[in-house]
Amino acid sequence: MKTNQIIFPLALALAAMLATTGCKHAPVGLTRLPGQEAAPVGGDGSGPTIGGGGTMGGDNGSTGINTTQGGGNTAALNSFDNMVDDPAALAANTIHFAFDSAAIRDSESANISAVASALSANAGDKLRIEGNCDERGTEEYNRALGERRALAAREALAKAGVSPDRIRTISYGKDKPVDPGHDESAWKANRRDDFILLHPKTGV
Amino acid sequence: MIAATPLLAQENGNLHMNERIPVPGMTPPIPVSMSGFTGEGAEVLKFDLTVQGFSFVTPDAAQYLINGSDAGGISGNLTDKFARRVLLSRSYNGASLRRQAHAFADDIVLAVTGKKGIGQTKIAFKSQPSGYGAGEIYVADFDGHNAQRITSDNAIVAKPAWVPGRLALYYTSYALDNPDIFYHSLTSGQRRKIAAYSGLNTSAAASPDGAKIAMVLSKSGSANIWVCNADGTNLKQITTGVEDSSPVWSPDGEWICFETKHNERRRLAKVPAGGGAVQYISTTGAANPTEPDWSPDGKWIAFTSQMGDFNICVVPADGSAPPTILVEGQNPSWAPNSRTLVFNRSLGYRQVLSVLDVFTKQDKDCARTTGSSSQPAWAK
Known about the structure:
Chain A is α+β, with helices and mostly antiparallel strands. Chain A has helices at 9-21, 75-78, 109-121, 139-159, 184-190; strands spanning 2-3, 83-86, 95-96, 126-131, 167-171, 192-200. The longest helix of chain A is centred in the C-terminal third of the chain and has 21 residues, at 139-159. Chain A is globular and about 45 Å long. In chain B, 9% of the residues lie in helices and 45% in strands. By secondary structure, chain B is mostly beta strands. In chain B, the strands form seven sheets. Chain B has a five-stranded mixed sheet, with helices on one face. A four-stranded antiparallel sheet of chain B has the order 8-7-6-29, with no helix packed on it. In chain B, strand 27 (350-357) and strand 28 form a beta hairpin. Strand 1 of chain A pairs parallel with strand 5 of chain B.
């Protein structure tokens, strides 16, 4: 009888690497999220393999990612640091959408005007528009749809005289339902833009 | 036990019959009969072979016989009943019994089909305790076993995607109060922001050579497909549609397939990875396509169709045949073998992972992780 012993030299190498690197020496430029504890795979002794285990080497610092140039561009968001959420201020002005639509209905014009007025009343205030969807779409499709809903409101506010630079958009897709139900009334309530007024932090 | 006589695929005339014209959902499975295995060993072999096009039948109806034992480790042999030949006779030790059984399943697949099995591959996915909102990224064996949590942010996460050939993921996380794209090395546990522009940063997909990333950004004022280098530099907008989502690469790296809207209808389309004219992909009969994934052999595009329910569909990438609607589900991701998909399907109001053999339409649910699991990505 032929014996085909399964040995995982790469897994052993990986385990050794984990033991030696740990989290003590974070490479320069890596962004560690607040509260993030590294949860590396492979500490269970059996070791993970991809595609039979022949391809898991070479991921220790040779990813091709230049840590000094990566990181995206947060400049546009930094101007929204040091602001405080005031979710109550415009809670009554949430706007709603038709199924699978990002078009702002004429019936929402009073809400758009109210949001524009609030922003014009205090030049230091800013706005976060949170776009949301009902559950009847695929996840990433809805994430894009929620963003389109938020951007549509930003455009409407721009037409009403608000500088788009004062407005930040975020899509929650179907991840932040106001009504977690699974019926028409829940779906209707969840297809929405919430407007969060942002005040400057005092003393900053 | 008879000495091992492993056969190469081309030596077995019956094999090509199975390979000639694989029709999604319509291809007869390869009938096998199994004896001697119990418990976990039998379970693993049945799972692995079912989702790679084998069916378990009585010895009389089988073309291949699998005999063996899982006492003190997996040992077994594979006999071609028609050719009256033993194709495989092996015993396994080391690692876990599950791993040994996966390895035996891989050897059976190789002996019968000439193709590399998927028994020892990995998937990544997201799991949400509430079915929506905050969740974490996990990595598991392709059958859902040995799941390990990768993130610990208690934040909304989305769309894990493997870097080909590496133990590394891209994914979207709201941990910094914005949907941003992160690169996460599973060997070091370190991660870094790749895209954190104003607005939406999501749906990262690594190019086949790992050198580039396609993704959805809304920094231009609408959600469109962008491409950058793996380090986030050399950012370029590729599409300008009114709605674009879910980019994936063709295996030759030449094209990016994505969902878009054309004449008020959701369509699948492809665009040259460096930018250029958009070409629409016909999915007539499978409305509202989203979430495409291009098979590693280049032949198929799997996608989700929304017609009331969500359905997993496949269409030839060259448009030579209409799409086939397979099973209820979302988020299909191809295995390295270009015939098996992992996807999520509804179980009540939660999502569970399931694995589907496209050609025989046989599927099995993965072992479950707490909560609602979705957006699986198969490591390639």
